[in-house]
Amino acid sequence: MGSFKVAAVQMRSGTNPARNAEDMERLVREAAGLGATYVQTPEMTGALIRDKQAGAAAFMSEDKDVVVATARRLAKELGIYLHVGSTAIRRADGKLANRAFLFAPDGAMVAGYDKIHMFDVDLDNGESWRESASYEPGLEAVVTNIKGARLGFAVCYDLRFPQLFRAEALAGADVLSVPAAFTRQTGEAHWHVLLRARAIENGAYVVAAAQGGLHEDGRETYGHSLIVDPWGRIIAEAAHDEPAVIVAEIDPAQSAAARRKIPNLKNARDFTVNAGAAEPSRLRGAAS
Predict the structure, then answer these.
(1) How many domains is the chain built from?
(2) Which residues are annotated as catalytic?
(3) CB-based burial label for 187 (10 Å; 0-12, 13-18, 19+)
(4) Does residue 28 fall inside a structural domain?
(5) CATH number for position 193
(6) pLDDT (tens digit per residue) in 221-278
(7) What dihedral angle (degrees, nearest 10) is formed by the CA atoms of 57, 59, 63, 66?
């Protein structure tokens, strides 16, 4: 196990998947040119479309999706691990999945992950989202191997559920991924602190490629793609909301070192919660 370069690609995806795939290709090529052998793109790389009818016309099955095809080709051509943070995929049952893909340097798909937690919120100033109205949530956390490291998957709103990252860390993940399209409002409040917290809690690197800026469908996202080390230090940031590439060297041995210093994964204990009920609920330390 040795160190390697990772990149987070910041985008401003519009409503046209083919055009977004072209933007992705340009930025991924830039990242590979900077020496990155693992490259991550943001949530909804393929398109950000609020209108359900427009989305129904634009979103395709996995075998017909232009972002999936482009990513597979690029991974093989550039000899990199290419992680499409997510794109909207039409499932066989007609429902949509907010799905991440990881392609290996030979172009093979290593893993896929469907976003588990749906962004159903009502924010200040009338901003409201109901992701569950369009997407079917995933049911399975995913951890896989890249270049001698173990990569755990998440997408955007998953960031607010620390039990997902703890479960992946306990399954051996020393790199955690959080591709996102955080709203500007929530990003300004919570983006940096939550990403650093997930890194610190789990003694793991966090790579978070973000959408940024004012999009064609009217939403505004925060940007500020980050790479955080296992001690919670930000080692690369796109400190704005413009399309960009950030790169950092990571060493999985630093994750092991952080976990030796603060062995909270090992020290977690089961416990009960006594809330005055007749039967106190019993929780696992991994979920606390």
Answers:
(1) 1
(2) 43, 115, 156
(3) buried
(4) yes
(5) 3.60.110.10
(6) 999 999 999 999 999 999 999 999 999 999 999 999 999 999 999 999 998 888 886 6
(7) 100
